[in-house]
Amino acid sequence: MNMVSIAEVVVWVQHGGSLAREAQRDLAGVQRDYKNDGSVSTAIDQQVEDFLVGKIAARWPAANILTEETVRSFDPEKSPTFVIDPIDGTDVYSQGLPGWCVSVGLLGQKLQPVAGIVYSPRMELLFFADLGKRATCNGSPITPPAVTTITRKSNLMVSSRILRDVDLSGYPGKIRSIGSGTLHMCLPLVSPAIIGSLGQRGAYIWDIAGAHAINKSIGYDLQYLDGRDVNYSQMINADPGDDVTLSGSPEFIDALRKILAGS
Known about the structure:
five-stranded mixed beta sheet, D-Maltodextrin-Binding Protein, domain 2, 2 domains, single chain, seven-stranded mixed beta sheet, 23% strand, 263 residues
């Protein structure tokens, strides 16, 4: 299948986000369940996933679709690959908090991130990078804030369990977490106070694909702490990544890596 615009997917993602937002209004209706890895899941995750898969599969029947809630086989003969996280930040979602989003990423034939949609209904933010186009937020082109140095005023978005993987005692600024690693990767693109994100070891493909494409479209990146590029071919069978991830401008990634290395 030739690569085409996924602009029409934006409406479906917004609808899925609206379904989740309405369900969240009634906390009694959000039953928390736990997966084998200890992460939280709800019936709404599955509902949003089923809706998005149904729409995308009908529109692009020859594409791969990888999702968080349902194990789906990957066919290397198919292209492109859609990656869906129906609710990233399910734990905070189930607690009634706003730091969650719906994410859809598109990977090309070589499993490189080429397009992405990240929608945060409660924060009213819609990030979108279409094929070959610069990302937008709520329809406006993104021009990321100019960040030159990491200071004590710098805000770093981190996963809730990051201190299990990284010693941040040498980092001079502030650390923040709102629940969704996907949003952590997108917020530095529009907030001058936020310089980048640091994700815990073991991220899955659906945790990062959509936001990675959005970052990549404006010249930002996602890398492992040890300097490797993220290899999606190692994650297509629901296997987690094997290192901490850094996202942001190349300058930020280099500066943070040096701080964490103690240099």
